[in-house]
Amino acid sequence: MSSDDEKPKPSRTWNLPLPDGGTLPIEIVSEEEAEKAEAVVCNTTDIPSMLPQSRLAYGNCAWCGKAIYWSRITAPKKPPKVCIHCMIAKGTTH
Ligand SMILES: [Zn+2]
Q1: Which carries the bigger pLDDT value, residue 74 or residue 62?
Q2: Averaged over 20-24, what is the pLDDT?
Q3: Confidence of residue 10 (pLDDT cuts 50, 70, 90)
Q4: What's the CA-to-centroid distance between 22 and ligand 1, angstroms?
């Protein structure tokens, strides 16, 4: 019970495994929220998928052009899909 906690922590987070052995916590949002997202974070194809091959869709990162994949079932359609590396770079530069 700390008074420093200004906002509640998101209850649904997923730790995305990174190639360097670390993890990146991803907040899981509803489909409606996801459609409004700035971008969808996708794994590059050098990161092993936790999903069966039949559920994956493939494409290229909207920012750097790397080959990426995402879940064809859960990924929102409107936001640009960007690779995890771009998202990390973005997250650490502002
Ligand atoms: Zn990228």
Answers
A1: 62
A2: 84
A3: very low
A4: 18
pTM value is 0.66
Phi, psi of 27 (to 5 degrees): -85, 130
Residue 4 DSSP symbol: T
Q: Read out DSSP for 13-76?
A: EEEEE-TTS-EEEEE---HHHHHT-S-EEEEETTSPPSS-GGGEEEEE-TTT--EEEEETTTS-
* Ligand 1 centroid, distance to 11 Cα (angstroms): 27
C-alpha–C-alpha distance, residues 46 and 57, integer Å = 15
